[in-house]
From TrEMBL:
Coiled coil: 13-40
Keyword set, alphabetical order: Coiled coil
Protein known as: Coil containing protein
């Protein structure tokens, strides 16, 4: 998870500290969404490969476009 400098908990929780925790939660949620999407793309690609027997699919088929989109999404998410 990305790290933002910690607030001082020795003092009362102020607006800055509350903002930090809100952002920390948002970052955690976005990271989880990214991981979920990556896993969904990998699952879809495995299904696609299984059902096409790893053979090339004609480019004019919508499934070929979806496979390309999923491969691109996986590559981007793994960066």
């Amino acid at each position: 998870m990305s790290k933002i400098s910690r607030c001082n908990h020795d003092n009362d929780v102020d607006r800055q500290c509350a903002d930090y925790h809100r952002l920390e939660t948002e970052i955690t949620n976005l990271e989880q969404q990214r991981n979920d999407l990556l896993e969904a793309c990998k699952t879809a690609m495995a299904w696609f490969d299984k059902h096409t027997n790893d053979e090339p699919v004609w480019e004019d088929q919508p499934s070929a476009d979806m496979a390309t989109l999923m491969q691109d999404a996986i590559a981007q998410a793994e960066k």
